Known about the structure:
Nucleotidyltransferase, domain 5
Amino acid sequence: MSEVLSTGYLQADETGVKVIDKQKEAKKGKKDTKLHKGWYWLYQDVTGKKVIFDYQKGRGREGPSEMLKDFKGYLQTDGLEVYELFAADKLHIILLCCWAHARRYFEKARDLAKKVTPDLEHPLLEIQKLYAIERHCKEMDFDYAQIAAYRQQHAAPILDALHQWMKQQRIKWGNINKLPFVEALNYSLKRWDKLCLYLKDGRLGIDNNPIENSVRPAVIGRRNFLFAGSHQAAQRNAMMYSLYGTCKMHGINPLTWTKDVLQRLHTYPKEDLWQLLPQHWKPIELEETDQNDQKQEEAAIAKRLLPYQRSLQNPHNTRKYKKGLAENQPELAHKGC
């Protein structure tokens, strides 16, 4: 956890989970009255490829307040108001928002419109240009400084022009607020400075899609197991999602990691357990494992034969030794003895 929170850039998201609360009184004639709506809060270190799932009973600012009390740096979110309330009095946390969420509002406005007009298409085309710039930086394998410089040169003018266009459109629609297109304008204009912060630092992403990818296993799990059996069970789920989510980010098969760690866990002192975390884990070579297993089996056989070997010092005990050898013959034959 400390490794994730010590980074200077985190992405955050949250997703709900149903939890059985046995202390909740069931109401007559109503279903699911003992089910509580809990929340997994996610914090992801994109550059270091680590993710934390933190289970909380609610969706209030108490969740990030406790987890991020010592965090310093950029925090990228979907613009949920809870994060605004949480970071309002914290000068050491800089919020930035997500262009993927802003784009979805404009896509919704276009899809719901009876007729698609140039005004509905314009912001989507401009946002598409911003993503083209990001793809170019990735294809060219730019470092963080080069990404920041390229964004300032190519993305900043697009954003300046788009900002002016959105403000003009908002004036044009006056006091109307309920139209999907106006809602899209309001969402972006309200968060404009936070949407543009990614220009300043090449580490920062244009959106928080990486953490949304980390949310998906929890969503799929929710559809399969339907609910957690208790708040403690939900916390255990969060721990496993954290470990397996980090495995996925490092290209590690979770099953391979789990089997290996369970076999080696007892050999590590408490202060060295961090070496088994997915971001530090190094698998033991299969050949080395097989050799060690073979040596252990041979040593065990030799130990069992030792009493019989000692008995050979007395000539009358030769028969006893042959009997012991016969009892261990299958294992010795297996080892080529």
